[in-house]
Structures are given as structure tokens and as C-alpha cells.
Amino acid sequence: MLKSLQVKRFAIIDQMEVTFKDGMTVLTGETGAGKSLIIDAIGLLLGDRANQEMIRTGETDAIVSGVFSIESERLKQALNQAKIPYWDDTLTITREISVQNKNTIKINDISITLIQLKDITRHLADIHSQFDTQRLLAPQNYLELIDGFRLDLLTPYLNKYQTELHQYQKAHQTYHEWLNMQKELAEKLDIYQFQKKELSILNLRENEIDELTQEVSVLANFDKINLALNSTIELFDAGLNDQLYTLQNELATLTQSGLSLKESWDKTKDAYYDFEDLEKTLKRILRDLAFDPSELNRINERLNELEKIQHKYKKSIPELIIYLDFITQAIDKSENYEAYLKSLYQSLAQAFQAVVSAAQSISNVRMEIAKQIEKELSTVFADLALKNTVFRIEFQNAHPHDPLKKEVFSMSGVDNVEFMISTNIGETLKPLAKTASGGEMSRIMLAFKTIFIRSQNLSTMIFDEIDTGISGYVATQIAKKLKSIASNCQVLAISHVPQVVAMAHHQLAVSKKEIAKRTIAQIKELSFDERVEDIAEMISGEKKTDLGILTAKTLLLEN
Fold first, then answer.
1. How would DSSP label each residue in 3-51?
2. What are 436-475's pLDDT values in tens digits?
3. The domain 1-124+459-526 belongs to what CATH superfamily?
4. C-alpha distance across the termini of the chain, in Å
């Protein structure tokens, strides 16, 4: 659950610290007072994208920090996987937004990416915004709702499918590239054959220029190298190694006598054997050293030849080697077009069957999840004044059969679903997006969130005006459902509906005032009497009435 929130220099919030409690907490206040800013701040901690417009005017940065308690094994596993330490089952998430775009994200002082933050916090909390309800109007969002219900179950199947899809797309691209390339290859075949002959004769080697350049340097400096080699070898002949051997023995004696010279002794021993190897190497080089003018001419001619071919093709030797391999394969493919095309199609067909199989596995799992969702929703609907509602998830799956048609596959599979609903006895099932009213949409989304919280074992659920546009009995039922959720999960809700506000265990009032010609948002927890006054205003309007106060007090006492 969210234990506390600290916000600095965030829009009209100059500095604010809020402590949250168990149960259901409702945030109230006038429109524009800053309630949604608090939800936005929490959203940043859960992985929403940041932008500079969030920074308070005149400031260079904004900081949002929240302390959460860890109440889920899935959350612990995600933290362990990300190698983020935690103590006392607590974690602190901090987001800093800078005008220089030097934004940082930290969990327990460990810097992480936005992707990592989202992966971790999906086990922690969820925010329902007014936009979420609008998602029910777009069938393309339905798969995401289904998958989110049991993402842990579906993820292995999605991962396998996406791996197979990548292989299929790659095979599909290769096949079509070859179809498009064949005409071009046929036109360039004569050129490629000439270039292959020209380049093959040269027997190009990747590091040849460096090797030849070194050989030229040796031959050009033959006298200098010969003199230096002889002078160096004379040092060894004069007893250099014998002196090192004597020094090694003397250091051994000093070390054994108690002086701390073992490290120097070890270095001398290593130097003795290194110099012994060096002597052998230098004598071998001197023995093999010979000056051949014709060899120098041959090397220079070869370097000139390599320079010309690089200039002609405008490619380095390593690039020419790659190019030669390319045109060799192109010639082979062009001369064996039908066989190669058949081989590519077989690879494509094989990849197609693999991705179809993986997609079918996803469909099977989704259908089982859909059945569970239908079953659980039916029990929740009754609590939300939708007792006669029948809800079905209909699958309209594609049935891929042509390996050449890749458009049937999406990143989530081949499934298309429609949410079908009937809210009255005797009415046929119809598409949800076309038949449900705004009030019904809000309740249906609340039902989805209810079972989602249960399946994901979330410790915090945040509702941003889930009760917009409702009143009376329906408002009371939504209030009861929110409080019911709060028995197992911390609930934070923005509301202007008296029944919902009165149902909460705690009420935080958000207000704004002008200080030194700047608008500043403030928050405070209301006492019982203050809650009576606030709810009475919601009931009666700006001017509280005795009846409004009595009704507000009754609502609070009943809950």
C-alpha cells in the first residue's frame, strides 16, 4: 500500500507531504484545486511518462517520492529480479523531472529505467482514470483487458508467440526481398560476373595491407635493424643473463635472512626467464633476417595493386572481401533461381506453421481466462445495480492459412474479441460499445477493476472519479463496492458524490490559495465535523442547509 507521498515543485503544488492509511480514502475539493495532480504524481511513481510542463513555473525541477509497503510475493520477485534491495518490506520510489531533461527514476536509491519501473509497479498498484472507462468504447482495447486479468499465466505463451512471429516476419521479408531482387540481379549479372573474376584473382586477405606495410618498413630499415640486433645480442653474450642470475641468488639470500625483498626476488626471477626467451627470439630474428631487393619490389607492386582496387571500388579490403562474398552468392542465386525460391518458401511455410501454432495456444489460454472473467463479473454486477446483466466475451479469431499474408498476425496474436452485453431480461446480447450507457460503462469498468485487483493481488487501487454522472441508488451501490474493495486493498478515490465520500474511512480535502501572487495547492485530513460540513455542501450546494447537514451526518454515521 501507499504509505506516504512527497511532492515538490509540481505544477501548483509547491511542497506537499501526505500520509495515507489503510481502508478507503477519498479526496475531495473544488474543480482545479489539485486533486488530479496528486493522482498524476502517484501515476509518475507507477510508471507514467514525465514531461517538463509538470514542473512548477519558475522552477528547474520537480520531485515526487512515495513510500510503499511490500505486500505481494510477485512484487518481491520483481524486485529481486531487478536486483533492488529492500528492508522491512518497504520501498521508496522517487522521480525527478528536470528542465534539462536529466530525469531520474530510483527505487530504494537504485537508478532504474522507466520500463523496469512499470514492470515492478504493475504488482503494486493500479490507477483507474476516466480514460479507462472510455477504453470500453474501443474493441481494440479488449484484449489488453483480458490479458491483464491473468498476465502471469499468459506471458510465457506471448513470449513464445512473439519469438516465432519474429522468425516468420524475417522469413517473409527474405522471401519477398528475393522476389523483388531477382529482376535487379538479372540486369547486373554480367557486371557481377566480371567483378567476381577481377576480385577473385587478387586473393584478398583482410590484414594483408598492414602485414605488407610492416615488411616494407623492415626492408627499408634493414641496416638499422641489423645493427641494433647485433648490438643487443652482444649484451647477452657479455653476460647479461648471468648477472641477472647472480642478482636473483643474492636477493634470495637476503630474503631468507629476514629482509622484506621477496617481491623484488620474484620480479628478478621472472625477468631472468623473460630475458632468456628474448635472447632466443632476437637470435632467431637475426638468423632469418635477409635483404632481398626483388622482394621489396614485389611487395610495393602488391601494395600498389591493392590501392588501385580500393580506389576503383571505393571500398576497403575488408569491405571488398564482404562484397565479393555478396556477389558470389548473388550469382549463385540468380543461376539457381527456382531452387532457391523454393527453399525460401519452404522456410517461410515452416515459420508460418510455428507462429500459427503459437497463436492458437494463446487463443486457448485466452478463452479459458475469458470464461473466468465472465463468471466473476456476473457476481460483481449484482453488487453494482446490474443484477439482470448478461456479459459474454465472443472471440472472432482469424484462421491463417496463407504463409504469404502476414497482416493477420499482430504482436498479441490472431484474436479479435467483442464484449457482448444485455442489461435487461429478454434482450439479446449486443456489442457493449454500442449499447451501454455512460453510467453502465462506469459500473462495468469498476467490475473489471474489482476482479483485476483480486487476480493481481494489488495492495493499492486508485479511482479518479469512477462515479462521474451517477447518483441515487447506483451511487450508493458504487460506494459500497469501493468500500468492499477496501477491505482487502487500500483504495484512494477522487469523488464529488456524497454517498461515496461518506462511505470512506478517511477524507482528504484539497484546496488552493494565493500566497505572494502564486497559487498553491494544500491538503488536509478532515475531522468528523469537517466532513459533515463538506458533504452537506455537496448535497445542498454552496449554501448549506439544516437538512443537508442532517443528511450528511446520517450518511457518515450509517457508514
1. EEEEEEEETTEEEEEEE--SSEEEEE--TTSSHHHHHHHHHHHTTPPP-
2. 777 788 888 888 888 888 787 788 999 988 777 777 888 8
3. P-loop containing nucleotide triphosphate hydrolases (3.40.50.300)
4. 23
